[in-house]
DNA sequence: GGTAGCATGTAACGCGTTACATGATTCG
DNA sequence: CGAATCATGTAACGCGTTACATGCTACC
């Protein structure tokens, strides 16, 4: 039940059309809540039906026409309610850890190459986050309204840092393991 | 497409019935791939139909009767294939980070209490992992076949450590923020 | 006017979740 | 025998994913 709230947040930051939202979900918000354009259009329809958002006055309702949405007061209230409500952490889901556990049973053949690939992907993501930090949060300038956003970014940086370190360590261990290479 | 492989791994470690699997998914494997008993029964049916597992000879097929499964050679081969195959990391999904981003727009009212609760949950999980480490991986004794399992456990420990640190930091920042308290 | 790209959708399917149903076993 | 517990299921629904469809706009 989080996609509608992700969309409300994005629309409050800036009113947008479906495709613009999709693009923003590929960048900033999508770093921790991804969505495809099909999900977004489906959800925009629901949010509009529930009275949380509306199309901007300059709309043409035809099919191939751009249609921008803005958040209504009821939408902002719902987002505030959701933000403050207690929520249990979702159960963990990590395919890579599952694969290592499987490898402990059926062997590590072919695993190493993909671990290298993942390491490279995480390094790239980390570099991207650090670049954003340099650009948007230079040291010294720390406006109160940016504090929360910086906090979120730092979570991303620390998580990617963890994965690069852990994968490096995992590759070390794999190298020392007996078995076909 | 990972639940069947999680089940194959668990069944290779030890043949089990559906409910026993459910219990094991509440503990070890479920730490990074959770599943309910409904999912597990559904998936056991599919895996049996595909010839990857079979019921142990001592079966009684009646409804309330215990039914244990073991992995067939085809199932082990499929698991080995899946383990070695390249897989892209799943896009991140984290509700808490999303909520912080929403709070940057609609305010932080009511957020603090739930962050405290999450911090406590992560501290408890971390303690549980460390207890498992003390019990199953005492320093010095590091059999090669346990290396991979220990590696997975350390990922869990490091991730929970990260969350406790990050949440502590987040609560510090929230405290310094202006606004209704 | 034909083609490429922009923009908004529809349809189908599978996994994950929640609620409920049914049969066996144990024990007072 | 009645209740609690163990054990295996069924049904319904929503989100996430993939593939495909339709209508505009710009440009050669």
Automatic annotation (TrEMBL), chains A, B:
Protein name, UniProt field: PadR family transcriptional regulator
Organism: Streptomyces fuscichromogenes
Pfam families noted in UniProt: PadR, Vir_act_alpha_C
Domain Transcription regulator PadR N-terminal: 7-80
Highest taxon of the lineage: Bacteria
Domain Transcription regulator PadR C-terminal span(s) in chain numbering: 93-174
InterPro entries reported in the protein's UniProt record: Tscrpt_reg_PadR_C, Tscrpt_reg_PadR_N, WH-like_DNA-bd_sf, WH_DNA-bd_sf
PANTHER family linked to this entry: TRANSCRIPTIONAL REGULATOR YQJI, TRANSCRIPTIONAL REGULATORY PROTEIN
Membrane-traversing stretches: none
């Amino acid at each position: 039940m989080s996609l509608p709230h992700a969309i409300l947040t994005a629309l409050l930051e800036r009113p947008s059309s479906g495709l613009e939202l999709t693009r923003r979900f590929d960048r900033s918000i999508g770093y921790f809540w991804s969505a495809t354009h099909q999900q977004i259009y489906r959800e925009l329809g629901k949010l509009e039906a529930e009275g949380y958002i509306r199309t901007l006055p300059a709309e043409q309702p035809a099919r191939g026409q751009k249609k921008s949405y803005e958040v209504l007061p009821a939408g902002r209230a719902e987002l505030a309610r959701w933000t403050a409500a207690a929520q249990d952490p979702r159960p963990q889901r990590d395919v890579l850890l599952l694969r290592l556990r499987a490898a402990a049973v059926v062997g590590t053949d072919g695993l190493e190459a993909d671990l290298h690939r993942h390491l490279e992907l995480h390094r790239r993501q980390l570099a991207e986050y650090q670049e954003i930090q340099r650009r948007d949060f230079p040291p010294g300038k720390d406006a109160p309204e940016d504090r929360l956003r910086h906090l979120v970014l730092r979570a991303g940086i620390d998580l990617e840092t963890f994965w690069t370190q852990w994968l490096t360590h995992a590759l070390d261990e794999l190298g020392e393991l007996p078995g076909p290479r």
